[in-house]
């Protein structure tokens, strides 16, 4: 009986290990497992009790942008971990007016948060950092290295959070890390920027009008096969279930406040 119970224990352990080991994703299916870093300026603006649902909604929108057929590659953006930073840490990472140093600080911070075991459920492929602090010259929305996905230190982006429209900034900056250039800069897709291409030099994409340019698709396909970390299946994460459409949870007045600040509401003038 003793031998039988130890055999059962051994089989159970092997089953658990098999469940923990990641399956290999389909050849045409890529998963970017994301660590989301959120600084104190974002937490204070949205409020501690509301910020998590807001961030989950924002990341759902980023995922939908990557699901657009114009990309030509099936990419899932999967949130595996969320860290909200306190005030002191937040101001130590962001250097006002210095985007390259701020990005360097954020990338180093993300590297320090990494779970060393790739089979850990919170091991990330890519870090996305959100702030409402001004890290660059006026109007700078984001900063990221071109290529670097799966690299332990370079796979990260710095993004200015300004409401749900920031999803396009996040998608754009992550596009750089995947190897995409600005449309019309080093490629021949400048004609697509006016139509709301995600990789336009100044992000003009909007919910009613966005797409990935033909150049973005070509640049992505040039690099995507070298990003081995995107090939495994993510673990299930127990995030709260959200309604499919953000407008169910957030009124137009709230969305105006997210974009423009306290005191702004939807314009009802005809």
TrEMBL record:
One of its GO terms (molecular function) is metalloendopeptidase activity. PANTHER family: A DISINTEGRIN AND METALLOPROTEINASE WITH THROMBOSPONDIN MOTIFS 3, ADAMTS A DISINTEGRIN AND METALLOPROTEASE WITH THROMBOSPONDIN MOTIFS PROTEASE. InterPro entries: ADAMTS_ADAMTS-like, MetalloPept_cat_dom_sf, Peptidase_M12B. Residues 30-234 form the Peptidase M12B domain. Zn(2+) binds at residues 172, 176, 182. GO terms for biological process: extracellular matrix organization; proteolysis. It comes from Nyctibius grandis. GO terms for cellular component: extracellular matrix. SUPFAM superfamilies: Metalloproteases ('zincins'), catalytic domain. The keyword Zinc applies. The active site is at residue 173. The gene is Adamts3. This is ATS3 metalloproteinase. Keywords: Metal-binding, Zinc.
């Amino acid at each position: 009986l003793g031998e039988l119970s130890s055999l059962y224990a051994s089989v159970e352990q092997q089953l658990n290990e098999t469940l923990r080991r990641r399956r290999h994703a389909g050849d045409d299916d890529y998963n970017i497992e994301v660590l989301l870093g959120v600084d104190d300026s974002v937490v204070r603006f949205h409020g501690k009790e509301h910020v998590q649902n807001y961030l989950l909604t924002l990341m759902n929108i980023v995922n939908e942008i990557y699901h657009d057929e114009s990309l030509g590659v099936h990419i899932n953006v999967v949130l595996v971990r969320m860290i909200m930073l306190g005030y002191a840490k937040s101001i130590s990472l962001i250097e006002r007016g210095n985007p390259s140093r701020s990005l360097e600080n954020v990338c180093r911070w993300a590297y320090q948060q990494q779970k060393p075991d790739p089979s850990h459920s919170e091991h990330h492929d890519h870090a996305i950092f959100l702030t409402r602090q001004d890290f660059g010259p006026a109007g700078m929305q984001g900063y990221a290295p071109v290529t670097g996905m799966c690299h332990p230190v370079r796979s990260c982006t710095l993004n200015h959070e300004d409401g749900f429209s920031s999803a396009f900034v996040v998608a754009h900056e992550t596009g750089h890390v995947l190897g995409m250039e600005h449309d019309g800069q080093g490629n021949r897709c400048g004609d697509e920027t006016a139509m709301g291409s995600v990789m336009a030099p100044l992000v003009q994409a909007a919910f009613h009008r966005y797409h990935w340019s033909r150049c973005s698709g070509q640049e992505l396909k040039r690099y995507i096969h070298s990003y081995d970390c995107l090939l495994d299946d993510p673990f299930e994460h127990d995030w709260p279930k959200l309604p499919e459409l953000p407008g169910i949870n957030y009124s137009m007045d709230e969305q105006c406040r997210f974009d423009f600040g306290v005191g702004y509401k939807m314009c009802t003038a005809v």
